[in-house]
Design brief:
The chain has 474 residues and is of the alpha/beta class.
Length: 474
């Protein structure tokens, strides 16, 4: 039986999902007309939009997400930014052909008469002169050429900035050469002996590049250098299966070794001179063509950077600093929405390209995930305190907060201290005991004169790589 119609006014809250913007709330004034016991009619007469807010910050989540999405889809001058990173190996090496040719001449016996001699060469030059990348290209290509001739040459590249002790170096040699050995409980001499036995059974050869060898000499000492370099002195009858390239900034780094070992090691020297402006132009053009979209970086910008860094124009001749400047100039263009990189963007970038940044940036790639998280915590503390040094305790507290953001289990205090010690050895951080005016004794940590913003940006990029692309927890 039908009943007379009754009208009721009241408010309801509706949850909706408007596409990619996120969850919002609508408050609607609704007219409900009861027509009968079996059905009713609902009319929406007024809609009011209420953004959902974060209960802690009060910020509009919808607004934050819109900002983030706009950043994600915003056009960029970059096509492949990784072509400007320190660890990138380019397809060709402009103006390092002579050094490659010299290395090929030195190591020719490894291809023509493998095993007759243990060959050593020293690659020497300042920061950013192409030593590491040239050696990597040479080692990789030598391995390929040898393989085509039926010779198994295994290329090992170790950064002594990170691995400074004899145990660390021989353990890394074993790991990279795929030698099946449990390193626990063995001395470095035993590990190295097993490495040689294994490659002898495999009829293989090793070309070992010890990068930043200066640090190994300083930390491990003359006896460790003697052991590695003169391993065949006591057994001249053995097939010479281990060869070395020692990469150094200066031959003065060998001042601690005895004169006989010095002469033995420095028989072959390949020098890398600072780049001239003309040479830097060619390097920067190559990187520009790989990293940027066509037409976004003009030759005037390339020439400007090359003249700033070229050794013949009063610069350091440091290609790494020149490439870093190009990277930061591109990021400056992106940040203001410019479709081209200008000379003004370069000027702005130069304020961030300090020698400390370039040097530290080289070493960051060798840090583990949690070392990077500790470094990020240190950067945040230094920025907040505006002091040159902060306490170990404050860094540890910040580190634990950062671990929660990345959903990572924090390491214990003793492990964090080891991370700091390792980064100090690598020249990334400075550490010293607290002095007068502080209650108790603690470790004070700082980061030289490197600007913090570009340093943190690089640390964040490497954290993302270590996490396999996974970022902070939402």
């Amino acid at each position: 039986m039908d009943l007379p119609g009754y009208s009721y006014y009241f408010e309801v809250t509706l949850n909706i999902h408007p596409g990619s913007i996120g969850i919002t709330i609508l408050r609607a004034s609704v007219l409900v007309v009861l027509h009968s016991i079996s059905w009713m009619k609902v009319l929406v007469t007024h809609v009011e939009y209420i953004p959902l807010r974060d209960p802690l910050s009060g910020a509009s989540l919808e607004s934050a997400r819109r900002i983030m999405e706009e950043a994600f889809i915003k056009p960029s001058v970059f096509r492949r930014k990784e072509a400007l990173y320190p660890e990138y190996v380019p397809p060709s090496l402009p103006h390092r052909e002579n050094q490659l040719r010299r290395l090929a001449e030195i190591f020719k016996p490894l291809i023509v008469n493998p095993g007759e001699a243990s060959i050593k060469a020293v690659v020497v030059g300042g920061v950013g002169t192409g030593k590491t990348v040239t050696t990597r290209v040479f080692g990789t290509e030598l391995r390929s050429i040898a393989r085509r001739r039926g010779i198994d040459v295994r290329y090992v590249h170790i950064n002594c900035h990170r691995d400074r002790t004899l145990y660390e170096v021989v353990s890394e040699i074993a790991r990279q050469a795929d030698v099946p050995i449990s390193q626990r409980g063995f001395s470095p001499h035993e590990i190295f002996g097993y490495v040689h036995q294994y490659i002898d059974r495999q009829r293989s050869f090793l070309l070992i590049a010890l990068d930043e060898f200066d640090y190994f000499v300083d930390a491990a000492g003359s006896d460790a250098v003697y052991f590695l370099m003169r391993v065949y002195d006591e057994h001249p009858e053995l097939t010479k299966r281990i060869n070395y390239i020692l990469i150094m900034r200066s031959l003065s780094g060998l001042s601690k070794v005895d004169s006989a070992t010095y002469s033995y090691v420095t028989r072959y020297i390949v020098s890398f001179e600072p780049y001239r402006s003309r040479e830097l132009r060619d390097i920067l053009r190559q990187r520009r063509d790989e990293a940027f979209h066509p037409g976004t970086v003009g030759d005037d910008v390339i020439g400007y950077i090359a003249d700033l860094e070229g050794s013949d124009k009063g610069g350091s001749g440091n290609a790494r600093a020149a490439i870093e400047t190009l990277l930061l100039a591109g990021e400056a263009a992106d940040s203001e929405g410019s479709q081209v990189v200008s000379v003004e963007h370069v000027r702005r970038a130069r304020g961030y390209v300090a020698p400390d940044v370039v040097t530290i940036s080289d070493s960051l790639q060798y840090l583990s995930l949690h070392e990077l998280l500790v470094l990020k915590a240190l950067i945040r503390n230094l920025r907040r305190s505006q002091a040159p040094y902060v306490t170990m305790g404050s860094v540890e507290n910040e580190y634990r907060d950062i671990c929660r953001l990345y959903d990572e289990k924090p390491r214990r205090h003793t492990q964090l201290y080891e991370y700091v010690v390792n980064m100090r050895r690598m020249g990334i951080v400075e550490a010293k005991p607290s002095g007068k005016g502080m209650r108790g004794r603690t470790t004070m940590i700082g980061i030289g004169g490197a600007p913090l913003d570009p340093l943190e940006k690089r640390v964040d990029e490497l954290i993302k790589v270590r996490l396999g692309g996974r970022g902070q927890r939402a």
